Fold this sequence. Notes:
hypothetical protein tt1805; 25% helix
Amino acid sequence: MARVRRSDAAPELSCAAASRCLAFPAIVSSPMSTASLPTHVEVGAILRAAQGAGGFAAILARGERDAGTIMLVTRDRSGSNQLWERRPSLAGDRAFYPIESAAGSDSAATDYVRRRRARDPDLWVIEVDIAEAQRFVANWGT
């Protein structure tokens, strides 16, 4: 019986060291896939960031826990509001884009959110009341 020397044996690869992990096929790195946090974690971070910046944030509608879309309703101290929706950009990342058709009027924003939720029940709607809403969204959207 031939003995295999330790130096002749193939090294064992751990999942962390392998580029493709057979034990956990969902953790396969691909240049086309971008890892993202589950939506409920992102929503919690937005709520805490708004409170940390001296503002207030509340969930108006809950969507799908892990992969829902996020819509922000921002209100600044002047009372004006703006809707923002997180979408993929051409660069491959996700950013918040303003929804111009629902800006300014509360009724237009409410109607837009109602129509959007009817088409996409996975949508999360978060209201953020903060001093510099546009800057908050710009900093968060990266």
